[in-house]
Amino acid sequence: MSIVVKVEEKLYQNRYIVDESRPHIQIKSEEACKSCDRQACTFCCPAACYSKNETGGVTLVTDGCLECGTCRVVCQDKGNIAWDYPRGGYGISYKFG
Amino acid sequence: MVEKFDAIVIGAGPSGNAATYTLAKQGLKVLQLERGEYPGAKNVQGGIMYAHELEKIIPDFRDDCPTERHIIEQRVWLLGDDNYVGTNYRSEAFNSDKPNRYTIIRANIDKWWGEQIRKVGGLQICETTVTELIRDASGKVIGVRTDREGGEIHADVVIMADGVNALLAKRAGLQDEAAPENVALAVKEILFIDPELIQQRFGIKEDEGVVIEIMGKVTKGMVGTAFLYTNKESLTIGIGCLISDFKNGDCPPYRMLEELKKHPVIRPLIEGAEMKEYAAHMIPEGGYKAIPQLYGDGWMVVGDAAHFNNAAHREGSNLAMASGRMAAETVLELKAAGKGFTASNLAAYKKKLDDSFIMKDLKKYRELPGIMHGNKQFFGAYPDEITAAAHNWFTVDSVDKKTKEKAIMKAFVKRRSVMGLVGDAIKLVRAVR
Question: Which stretches make up the FAD-binding domain (chain B) (predicted)?
């Protein structure tokens, strides 16, 4: 069974306080992503913040980030993700958790 | 002039709340810092709350704590492709006036904790991210730096309750990054539904609750589990696997969750419910061997940040509350004795943990994470064969029972070999003894 899941529809239910133009996670080197054979961040991130791009690298959009930390753990062998918490009060704001 | 407190607690989850409350109640000047918009804004839990540890801290919590349903029935299901084999335990004794377990909605509980902390004089400040520990020339932790202007605050002791990511300890070199096989990623949704339907579908009365813990085909052979819990007016459904397995696979967690929701035995239970939030969180799964250094000059670490989670029994929040309380009691005892918060004095915190169920249980299951990680058959081959065996056994088709027995045995042997079956049995015993 393989079904198409639109994660955006799930994220749409969540409350976010977006810190405009201050992403709390950054890819350190584009080149390192291009040489990464599996690019596991693109299928491990529960919010699909990472996607393969046309240059063979990975594009990161943190707006839907759930701040779980999985990408940092997944990428630790490459160490190519600079991961920080958003500024106080910003980011995901769980209503129920 | 930098403000100074007796203690700073970082984080407003179960462990930080327990520590802050315990310290404030005894009159200490304590500051709790939380990066979320409100307490609970960053927290995720299944969630089941165990009464016993909360009772130790706030004996009459039942008076106003916003719990959902008390649990009267526990189901454990092994899912096949379109079937399940399971066990249930239900008892009227769980309908006592002091129930042992409740389903909860995390954010409601954390807001309630915030009120309790204020009542006993603790200071809880939200929307403040702690960026680093401040240490003196000797390396002793003397305070924290935050992302607020002039955000330096000092304290005699700092308790890190900042959760599974534990960035502060990692940045300060007090802890290593978690290995992918030592942490799980879980995703979950909250589904709102008419309480009458919950009561009908699960065969329960108002306030009574059912929890279903799930293993099997839904994790696609990855080391992981799923769950379905009944709240008052909602259901929570979630699934999680080791990050090392997600990394080696190719199934995104949200697809796994969607397939769980569409599974023929799950779907009728959640049908018609409206999804209101989607959450993800890491869970420490490495057990005893993954526990980091727990204390040092001027600091202690508690809860998920200390990797306190009993994966085998799905207990986490009670270990969190207990460790937070023990850290606070260590502070109170040292202060009463006029002793400083040096590493050698704070070793008393470790002693308390060792003497408690926290370390005793984690030690008992110390081999479990490694054995599960290295033996995927427990999450792939066995669910397959056990559900197939049940299907064969319960299909009445004029095949004699002895032939059925033989076919079932043959299927197991074919899948695992005789030595494989024996080896798996030994591994399971080793994992839990």
Answer: 5-323
Question: Pick from A10, A88, A77, A2: which is nearest to A49 by CA?
Answer: A10
B351 interfaces chain A, CB cutoff of 8 Å: no
* CA-wise closest residue to B210 among B406, B57, B73, B81: B73
pLDDT tens per residue across span B342-372: 999 999 999 999 999 999 999 999 999 999 8
For chain A, say whether B276 makes contact (Cβ under 8 Å).
yes
From the candidates A22, A44, A75, which should be mutated to test the interface with B, based on the most B CB atoms within 10 A? A44
ipTM of the complex: 0.97
| Chain A: residue whose CA lies nearest to B184 | A70
Answer whether A13 sits within 8 Å of B275, measured CB to CB.
yes
**Which of B284, B314, B335 corresponds to the end of one domain?**
B284
> For residue A3, which residues of chain B lie inside 8 Å, CB to CB?
255, 258-259, 262
pLDDT at residue A2 in the model:
60
CATH code of the domain made up of A7-93: 3.30.70.20
